[in-house]
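Moderator note: this is an archived Q&A kept for reference. The question asked for a predicted structure of one protein chain; the sequence and the answer are reproduced below.
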Amino acid sequence: MVYFPCKPLSREWEKGDSPMKVNVHHLGVIQQAEIDLKPLTLFIGPNNAGKTWTAYALAAILGRYGQGRYRQAYAAGDLPPAFPPLDAAIRRVLETGSAKMDLVRLGEEYGEAYFNGVARLAPRWMQDFLATDRVSFEDMNLGIQLQEAKQDFLKRLRMYHSEVNLSVSPKTGKAMLKALKEPGETTFYFFTETKAQALEELPRRAVRDLMTSSVFEGFRSALYPDVWIFPTERAALSTFQRLGRPTALAEPVQHFWDLVQSAFRISRAAREREAERDQAIQDYIRLAQLLERGILDGKVDFTTPDPDPQREIVFQPTNGVTLEMPIVSSMVKELSPLVLYLRYLAQSGDLIVIDEPEMNLHPEAQARLMEFLAMLVHAGLHVLVTTHSPYMVDHLVNLIKAAGREDPEAIRRAFYLQRTEAFIPRQNVSVYLFENGTTRNIVDAEGLIDWATFGNVSDRVADIYFDI
């Protein structure tokens, strides 16, 4: 493959790239696990050790799915009151028609309680999320400690913007209830634009739903603007791009389908206008180009610049031929959704969860991809992957070591993508071995990784050769 240079990424490593701690109990085969989620987190280990279930459970709890289930239960009164300032504001709105509260202070006092509330509710819906009725999750327990991530969470909560209207009059354009939080301010306002008595026409649950939804959305997006899952089924689903939304699939797979369809609905011009206002989006568009040129050796995009019923994903190898997705290589099918995500959807701070990114990739492509994933972290994304690839794990050690060099420019040409942005400090990496119902971080203080889960197999294969 030919290396194509592109403009350096603008982002420097942030001091705020801080971990949060997750404790997992009784999730499938996992009896007890303690995980520090860092900007780049790898789950490795044998098959059926709990890697994917743990990754998916975290994505659900920290993302929109868990927020939606928790909001529905809380607004319906199915859960005990857990946020006194919010509950008091709801009562004031119902009684007087208006209320305000300090969202940042609420986040400081109850932000962690929100995520743990979502986690406590997860046993009720985990069967639905994974599309199974054969496994019980009633004993599952996840605990979340924001720790150093809390200060970043509060900073982003201050910048959160929300303007939601409930029951807008078609004649006056005024809302019976409005929720407003300006970026850079701490106060969340809830008020009616009509007569206060009009609120009596609204169901109390509708008022509770709007207010809890606005606040919980702020909490969720202040940790990660969005959480995106790339399941192992991604290659097949990227092929059947024009079909309706699949049914009876696990939620992670349906979530991925929604990701692809979301990209279909965005025009190239609209994304370029976003990029003009946001340096991070410019970086993600350039990273999409680097993924195409540095790994796929061709271009992935839609057949039309604007949404269209006949819009298709196609691949153009460097020789200029245009290919439909069903006939491209497995590698292109696997990674084309990541190209589309970066080009059309990525926001700074997103968490992307990729199940076995090495699938169908040649060892050299796996090493290139490891460099690329580290570059995504450098550009402001959070990456969680499950992997069985010794090439990716081995090469990650090189990237950690390179980050400690005082002269990174002197060594960048020794790497596949030849980019210093792929060098990643040890403190931004965690690698967890899943084994025997638990986990352990196998990155030592020097950035070396104890990956005996792969090495033991290599040793035995060699022993068999000499034995025969």
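Archived answer notes: The chain has two domains: 67-223, 225-430.
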